[in-house]
Write a structure and sequence with these properties.
137 residues, Cas3 C-terminal domain-containing protein, 30% strand, mainly beta, 2 helices, Cas3_C
């Protein structure tokens, strides 16, 4: 295994989190809705993250296949992992033993700000971190 220089970070010990990455979408019905809808990276149907209950087998598989493992400070700044760890798993994951402890990262069209960095997903690369300087890492 090749050693990787840590991102400019004060954390001495690595921290790890596994998150489900989704793209935010409008309500599939086109009307007003109080739910938070998102499409898993490896899926094509939206899920209401605020809804409790059993997920379909195909939705659970799409969500599970959209899990990304992040390790700070080597892959991502500690501030991002710390901010993600503060999130609660969404109600939609409660009925799934595989997903019940996972957090959801819902990305907007231009990315999503988390822990002082903007995260976006680039197919074939994974999560890309953009810091204030605008450089991608």
């Amino acid at each position: 295994m090749t050693a990787v220089d840590p991102i400019d970070d004060d954390r001495a010990e690595p921290a790890e989190i596994r998150i489900v990455v989704l793209h935010g979408v409008a309500s599939p019905s086109g009307g007003t809705s109080s739910g938070t809808y998102a499409v898993p990276l490896e899926g094509d149907e939206p899920v209401d993250l605020t809804r409790t209950g059993e997920l379909s087998a195909s939705m659970e598989a799409a969500l599970w296949n959209s899990v990304v493992r992040l390790v700070s400070p080597f892959e991502i700044p500690s501030s991002v992992v710390d901010a993600l760890l503060e999130l609660s798993p969404p109600p939609a994951f409660e009925g799934s033993p595989r997903l019940a402890r996972h957090r959801a990262l819902v990305l907007g069209a231009e990315g999503t700000e988390v822990g002082g960095a903007v995260l976006r997903y680039q197919r074939g690369v994974g999560l890309v971190v953009r810091h204030d300087e605008g450089a991608d890492h």
